[in-house]
Amino acid sequence: SLGAYELDGARTIRSASRRMAALLGEPAEALVGVPFLDLVRREDRTAVLRGTARAVGHGRSYVRRLQLQGSAGARPVLVREVTVVDPDGGLRYLGTVEALSEQQRLEDSVGASEQRFLRLIEGSPVGIAVYADARLVYVNPAFVRLVGYPSAESLLGKRLSELVDCENDAGISQRIRHSLAPGAPRRREERFRRLDGTPIQVE
Questions:
Q1: φ and ψ at residue 97, rounded to 5 degrees
Q2: Which in 16, 58, 156, 163 has the greatest CB count within 10 A?
Q3: SS3 annotation, the chain
Q4: What CA–CA distance (Å, rounded) separates 77 from 60?
Q5: What are 16's strand-pairing partners?
Q6: What is the pLDDT averaged over residues 80-99?
């Protein structure tokens, strides 16, 4: 269901539709005079303030997924908002609130989990690399430092044989298959070459 609202220049609710009130479990008249930010989940407030400021500064609309809270509890919603400049120069904000479906909430949850995982490996002190068809498709900052390259971009697409002290990609693939075989030790040492040609021993 799609609800609507109007905020004054101080971002206090001037009017709210019955659908928006129903989403929050509140009478529509009870929302009038309430600062909009008070309805936003605390964890989302800073992002809302920044997004609104950017939208006003660039004359654009504002769209964001967040959680609004009321008597009905926290509700994941999609907020779309546009800034209106009155003839006297004053600002008003017109917006809609749409309840997210279970599928949309699941996608948000999965996306958030992926972002947390990405932050974890990006910040890891251990070098991490992912390859496909014997070519690098992802490296974290620690791996970039380990092999002495200027950036992750300079490594992506390179063949493993350019980094590992081995004659060819077939030899590298054979080592990897051997390490993944049942009963094979999961930790092994490998000899890498840094960008300047210096050999390094890694585990």
A1: -130, 125
A2: 16
A3: CEEEEEECCCCEEEEECHHHHHHHCCCHHHHCCCEHHHHECHHHHHHHHHHHHHHHHHCCCEEEEEEEEECCEEEEEEEEEEEEECCCCCEEEEEEEEECCHHHHHHHHHHHHHHHHHHHHHCCCCCCEEEECCEEEEECHHHHHHHCCCCCCCCCCCEHHHCECCCCHHHHHHHHHHHHCCCCCCCCCEEEECCCCCEEEEC
A4: 20
A5: 5
A6: 83
C-alpha–C-alpha distance, residues 183 and 196, integer Å:
36
- Both tokens assigned to 181: 């075989």
Distance CA 154, CA 174 (A): 26
**Each residue of 5-45: pLDDT tens digit?**
999 888 899 999 999 999 899 999 999 999 999 999 888 88
What mean pLDDT is predicted for residues 148-175? 74
> Mean pLDDT throughout 99-123?
62
How many Cβ atoms are within 10 Å of 89's Cβ, its own excluded? 7
Burial 134-159 (b: 16+ CB within 10 A, else e): eebeebbbbbbebbebeebeebeebe
Dig out the tokens for 48 from the structure.
């809302």
Tokens for 50, please give them.
């920044």
What is the pLDDT averaged over residues 173-192?
A: 62
Q: Taking a C-beta distance cutoff of 8 angstroms, is the pair 180, 186 a contact?
A: no
